[in-house]
Amino acid sequence: MEFSTKAGTPDRIKSGCVVVGVYADRKLTPAASLVDVASNGAIAAAGRRGDLPSKRGGVLMMSGVTGIAAERVLIVGLGKQEELKAKGVAEAVRAAVKALGASGASSALFTLADVSLPDLSTVDVVRVVVLAAREAVFRSDELKSQKDEDGTLARIVFPVEKAQASSIAGAIASGVALANGCDLTKRLGNLPPNICTPSYLASTAKQIAKEWDLKVEVLERKQMEQLRMGSFLAVSQSSAEPPKLIVLSYSGGKAKDAPVVLVGKGITFDTGGISLKPGDAMDEMKYDMCGAGSVLGTLRAVAELGLKINVVGIVPTCENMPGGDATRPGDIVTSMSGQTIEVLNTDAEGRLILCDALTYAERFKPAAVIDIATLTGACVIALGHVNSGLFSTDDELAGELLAASKTSGDAAWRMPVEDDYQEQLKSNFADMANIGGRPGGSITAACFLSRYTKNYRWAHLDIAGTAWKSGVAKGATGRPVPLLTAFLEARAQ
Ligand code: BES
Ligand code: MN
Ligand code: ZN
């Protein structure tokens, strides 16, 4: 899908279809008013007939409207004006794109960015529109013989005043960069686990590096053995797929600037290992690499945005499989940090690969380290599918991430990481156990990670409930790429 700007007003620019918004109670947006006046009251007349969409996301396609340059008018409901926020604009945009696709339109003039929202500038809204439109046309159909034929809309044009043209074009470019990052994350998440293997993630990282001029290094098992990553390797040990430790670096800042390090859990399939998971919806454990996918997607977005910041992405990636040489419950492993871990449940594998990657992160002398992981079912119980769990011992870093969550609309909620929970990780035979029982399961997982992050500022995002959707709408969401990108953008200022 292409986006562009055209100088002029919505009533005078030629197009196959002009898209305008109306609020509840027949209240028109500025663009809808312009079209209405130019067409001698065509929209108001539709309102009197009771045809205007009153609900947000409702649509009315009108043809034969005279007095304007567009062949058709698509009217989109925005709901109550005082209740409209960025999320609502995105909802209306998705509805419009769907209706346009169904109507066979190949291009449309979009005026939905002319709504005025309390905290957002027009430039911000344009970015919201671009992201929502890209979301509406996203498909994971590369493995289908017959593609779904519901997306013919190929171009969206924004009408602009001359003075605004370059700032709107900038907003489009940044929206596209973010959408490209999200799409990569979604695509990787949705790919099946027999294709999206650790090696596949490594070659994807190499591709990104080549295309965007980043530095990439992929450590193999041998190197991980030399680094004494006994915890990570214990998870991988029964898999036929070799483990990889991917290090992808973007240098947009000064050479001396300490990097932000992003660490993403990359379990390309989580069977649970010997502590085998039940069969229900086990296919969804292909999404257990969504943390890794979000790190790669964020680096891609950051590179395309050209942010003035240094970012290092670290992705420990392997499968968690049962087998004759698998790690057993009761095995004690030694992590790269030297701390020993009693593996009481092989299904708590995410923390076992992350702890070694977090120790490895120390060598970059990071400004901050954020790990992103589909870490615990307990986080889904605590926060559902709305908020990602944010855990940090650093109030300032947590504040920055929560602020980024607000500006991006990518919700996160802070959870505690307190020493009182650490007791649940006590082992009689090793420095710690890898599980802390059912109470506060997402918190004890974060507490486990905190034992490996003492030497830098650290935050942890548990995205088990937000990285993908189940059911008929099954698919990766691309979260938390918007949050991470907003965080890095704010830091790059
Ligand atoms: N990848 C899972 C967490 C998960 C489960 C995410 C379901 C999304 C949906 C993780 O590796 C895991 O299995 N965690 C266990 C930990 C437990 C054994 C302490 C869990 O959450 O049950
Ligand atoms: Mn698991
Ligand atoms: Zn897992």
Describe the structure in your own words.
- With 493 residues, the chain is α/β, with parallel strands linked by helices.
- The protein folds into two domains: 158 residues, Leucine Aminopeptidase, subunit E, domain 1 (3-Layer(aba) Sandwich), CATH 3.40.220.10; 313 residues, Zn peptidases (Aminopeptidase, 3-Layer(aba) Sandwich), CATH 3.40.630.10.
- The protein is built from 15 helices and 20 strands.
- Strands 7, 8, 9, 10, 11, 14, 15, 16 and 18 form a nine-stranded mixed β-sheet that branches. Strands 1-6-5-2-4-3 form a six-stranded mixed β-sheet, with helices on both faces.
- Strand 3 and strand 4 form a beta hairpin.
- Helix 8 runs antiparallel to helix 10, helix 9 runs parallel beside helix 15 and helix 10 packs parallel to helix 14.
- The longest helix has 26 residues.
- The chain starts with a strand and ends with a helix.
